[in-house]
Amino acid sequence: MIIDAHSHVHDSAEAHVRLLDEAGVDRAVLFATRPHPERATDLAGLRREMAVLEEALAGGCGTAEGYRTAWRELDAALAAHPERYIGFLSVPLDEGPERIAETVEREVVGRGFHGIGELTPPPGRAALIEPVLRAASDHGRLPVVVHGSAPTTADDLTTLSTLGRRYPRVPLVVSQLGGQHWMQAVELVRDTPNMYLELSTAGIVFAVRLAIRELPGRTLFGSDAPYGDPVLARAMVERVTAPGGVRDAVLGATLAELLGLG
Fold first, then answer.
1. What are the residue boundaries of the Amidohydrolase-related domain, all occurrences included (predicted)?
2. What is the pTM of this model?
3. To the nearest 10°, the Cα dihedral for 241, 194, 101, 125?
4. What total number of domains does the chain contain?
5. What is the pLDDT of residues 213-238, one digit of tens each?
6. How many CB atoms lie within 10 A of CB 64?
7. Structural domain of residue 117, as residue ranges?
């Protein structure tokens, strides 16, 4: 089974499914999103969508209606293509530990989501995810996905590793190969047994090759679509691996095992 470990709701879901078909991807982990860069038809439109993204990555909460819209879009996509999508749900990080635990139990576990994410703590504040990890640990092997590229800092990656060791039952996934800090990310994930490294939007081929070589059982193929492309992301993995067990693991077998998929 080929699984894209990182994608966001598209407008439309049908367009996204066509991309998955073109890439030969069976299923995709799907996160909610407020920005929709795929809607832009010119530079001005893209700037507007990216401004929403920048606000989210900086810790801006946006409007309540913006979040409700994103959640409705996620629910609609999952309902339209349950055989293709694997739903993950993010949770607010600016609430108290008890409220976060209640949200995880009610909205994530109670509604049948497969994991939590993509979490986007503000730069320098990765420690905010600790109550989420605690709640995820209370529910067994509930994976948690955290944004790994800019504006995530090198110190944030170290914090994630420290928290990962504190909650060893929780599969903790760092996205986007840790961005510009990819070498540090590889080292930290290598030394933290319950951490995984998702490979989307990598701009350096040998970074993907080295990450897979160092972490053959804990690297995950992902596209970060619509910011990346599943065809190109899969081609990158296949370019740096030989046919066989390692490639199969990266392209989906590892994630299928984590999620308990047949």
1. 3-252
2. 0.93
3. -80
4. 1
5. 999 999 999 999 999 999 999 999 99
6. 8
7. 3-259
